[in-house]
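Q: I'm teaching a short session on how sequence maps to structure, and I want students to see two examples side by side rather than one. Could you give me a first protein with its sequence written out and its structure tokens following it? Keep the formatting plain so it prints cleanly on a handout.
A: Of course. Example one:
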Amino acid sequence: MITSEQREQLRGWFAGRLPDDLFEELADLTIDREEITVIGRIPGPRSAEGASPAEREAAVEGRIQEFRERTREDRITVARDAEHRFGRKVSWGVECDGRRALFTHVAAPVMTRLRQPERQVLDTLIAGGVARSRSEALAWCVRLVQRHTDDWLTELRESLEHVQRVRAQGPDGEPREDGPVADGE
């Protein structure tokens, strides 16, 4: 579990390490045990007056692809530094004209033991064309839960951060200012 302070330090490191002209702004930075995902905002393309939605979408796609190719070396350099420093892979993406595109990302395997009723749920999603495999169906379920329980998950994460702070104050954490407590106190 990553604390808010660790997340802020990581965001600060990337804000200081990224070349000034790479993004308009650092839009989002997400971290878990395996991966750091860096999303930057880039300017949208200039389109002709009265451009159709299809033309506008194609222009945004072209801008994203151009950015990806042009900045590859800079992003690789920053990623190497971050991977060495933080011990996690770095993934990249952009926001352009309200569209978010990921260039790279880690697909981490998850070990799980599902009983038959849970497997049947996944198989139903496959049969219904929602997913092509059980792992894809499981990922779909996780995204669905995430979408509908975001407030609850946020509260849980905050509670876990509190637990980490309390644990750090325990006997195996940092030394207390008033010294150790004697036996029997």
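Q: Perfect. Now a second example for contrast.
A: Example two:
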Amino acid sequence: MPDVMNSSRLIGVGVGPGDPELVTVKGVNALRAADVVVVPVMDTGERGRAEATVLHYVPEDKVVRVVFALNERSDRARREAAWDAAGARVAELLRAHATVAFATIGDPNVYSTFTYLAQTIEELVPGTVVETVPGITAMQDLAARSGAVLTEGTEPLTLVPVTAGAAVLKDALAGPGTVVAYKFGRLAEEVVAALRETGRLDDAVWGSALGLPDESISPASDLDGTPLPYLSTLIAPAQRHGKRGGKL
């Protein structure tokens, strides 16, 4: 049965793609002001990017690790069970604390686990105030580090998770504007083929572990089809010809 009405706050805080310097001032303040900070952990238990970033700003005894089975993508029942268990744990924290922050890499409203958590909490602890603090995304960080311009003038920007398949990416590449691909590492060979077929290979760039010691940033033309880290990001800029500001 759902709990009685609750006035606690659950705040999804975007902590960026991994570089602790890319957490906003508002994000740091939200993490420090919260009673506890929840970080998502894979069921294998290793420390993830969100946790590592949070620990730059809050003491370890304030951090609560909650398993979300983030590496589960084939067994829906197991994934749902993990979300339910995680939601139940966070609900317990909300009953005991006025403010609970949940740290998520990137932005809490862009392909984030926080979305599923918030939906669960709305059912388990009615009346909880749910808020988000935006975070810098991997595509913004890769653009800054590589010099790739995401958009100019009237160009559209399309973001595609390659977990949906390389065919979806190919359709996007066939259109106008810049295309960003997330989580494409395991399908690197298919992604390179799609870039080549659509004439978008030469200007594309990819990166992984941005801002971390094992950072990799390279032209997509250097890819040889070898699988890459799962959280790899690709930018295929719009094809631009002509004068400065030509697409205004």
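Q: What should students look for in example two?
A: Point them to this: The chain has a mean pLDDT of 90. Also worth mentioning: The chain has seven helices and ten strands.
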